[in-house]
Task: structure prediction
Amino acid sequence: MPNFNHLLPRANSIVFVDYKPAELRINKDWLIIYYAKNPMTEKMERFRMRVPVLKNKSERTRHANRIVAEINKKLASGWSPWLETPGKSFKAFEEGCNRFLDNTEKEIGDGIKRPDTLRAYKSYLNMIKTYLQEKAIKITFAIEFNKDVAIGYLDWIYYERQNSPNTYNNHLQFLCTFGNFLIERGYIKENPTNEISKKRKQLKKRKVIDPHIKTLLSEKLPLFNFNYYALCMVTYYCMVRRTEITKLKVSDFNLTEDYITIPGTVSKNRKDEYVTIPKELKVILERHFEGAQYNNFAFSANDFKAGKHQLPPKRISDSWVQVRKHLGLGTQFQFYSLKDTGITDLFGLGISPLKIRDQARHYDLKITELYTPRSGGGDESLKNSGAKF
Result:
């Protein structure tokens, strides 16, 4: 689990903004005095500690100096006395982050969320940590995780790191989810993403695969790696998502009745779903599964063969990049172009839009239509439709 301790030391030029170091003041009482910023009022407030009476002045002074040094060491490391103030709702940001991840792990164990969700959450929190480090922003209390921080972080993601609007929206959605968690657990009272708008979605940059490139791939991919070719064809014909493919077992492929079962434990939608295996794909799968065990992963870490060890999703994308470079294809032809092309081709064949929606497992036909780019010029079928007024 990521360690969010000391999120994060400030630059040296502003190290004393949140506190004034402890010092010993000797009057009638021996007091150790120091100041720390109240996270609610943003003002410095005084803290006092009496030095106990000891047998002689020298021993009492040494004891007081040890206390002063220890307090200043803690203050310099990011500690605040407000974290230990009784009756105050000043909860640590670090504690909220770790509790959020702990709760997510529990939900994964209970089948409520998928392991991929935890990996994504850790990645988002680490990115927030990187931002705070880079900008020398120290967050000790959860209430300091406010709208100003959220806006600054999102601007950093979009403008400074030159990410896409879709990436910006993904980070905004995470901040909203995390903020809701902190509200429910009493860490903060208002979601820091309130009134922060999403950016307009981009059109998909990946391109439908041209017929001549499809021919090239169908000739070269089986020679590159037949098992990887079979995996790619599952994406093209059945629109199965990359992560889902890595979790499917041989037993999920029914080559007698020509369908794939995508269990709720595997499906992005967490529901048991079914997709049809076309006859062209069936022939490919029959060869791919020769000698495979029923409980094997359909595509394993062993060179994409059916096997015992689960395939990392990134291997699929990395192998696609290798194929693309080897064949001299442009970067617009991404792995998921196979899925887009499969949907587009079914529309071109006149298959019912509802059947295409079900094969792609989209909850709405509008989602399916997003995957089908409009013609860049005149459409031949419309030119020759024969329609007259």
